[in-house]
Amino acid sequence: MNKVIVTRLELINNNITPKPGSNISLTTDVSVKKFNVASFRYSNTTTTLYYHSVVVGEAHGPPGQAKAGWTMRMNITVVIITNRLTWTPNVRADMGSGWLTMSSYSRIPGRVKMLNIIKKHVVVKMNCTIAINISSRAIQEQKCKRKVNL
């Protein structure tokens, strides 16, 4: 994940409280980068967004391919369901502090091909923790861990 931009955020009277019934939309710039001699063809991706262990949003990415040594970039829209977010304990205190910390889980199933000889099915799983600055509507900190299952 390279960058996240809040594209839609409706607040009550420009306050820190999201407008009831509205959703928050984020546009994420995501890269799939291959450093070695293998290419990676992946199918549809799913990312689930959590706030204090409660599912508050989801995003779906299109299939694609990262060729050996290349970087594939794409934009994915994430929709956060504010009704789920506002019913979560601590949301008012977190928004009042100006920070919103969320986590995400992405699952990317695909197939690795090396030198057109070796073909293997893999699943890339990524867990990220994201700290969003509410006033600037930008990510201030991001930590991700990935795991590849062969």
Automatic annotation (TrEMBL):
Highest taxon, organism lineage: Eukaryota
Annotated organism of origin: Malus baccata (Siberian crab apple)
Q: Which positions fall inside the Late embryogenesis abundant protein LEA-2 subgroup domain?
A: 36-129
User: What's the protein name?
Assistant: Late embryogenesis abundant protein LEA-2 subgroup domain-containing protein
Q: What is the lineage of its organism?
A: Eukaryota, Viridiplantae, Streptophyta, Embryophyta, Tracheophyta
Q: Matching InterPro entries, A to Z?
A: Lea14-like_2, LEA_2
Query: Which PANTHER family does the annotation name?
Result: LATE EMBRYOGENESIS ABUNDANT (LEA) HYDROXYPROLINE-RICH GLYCOPROTEIN FAMILY (PTHR31852)
Write down the Pfam families for this protein, in alphabetical order.
LEA_2 (PF03168)
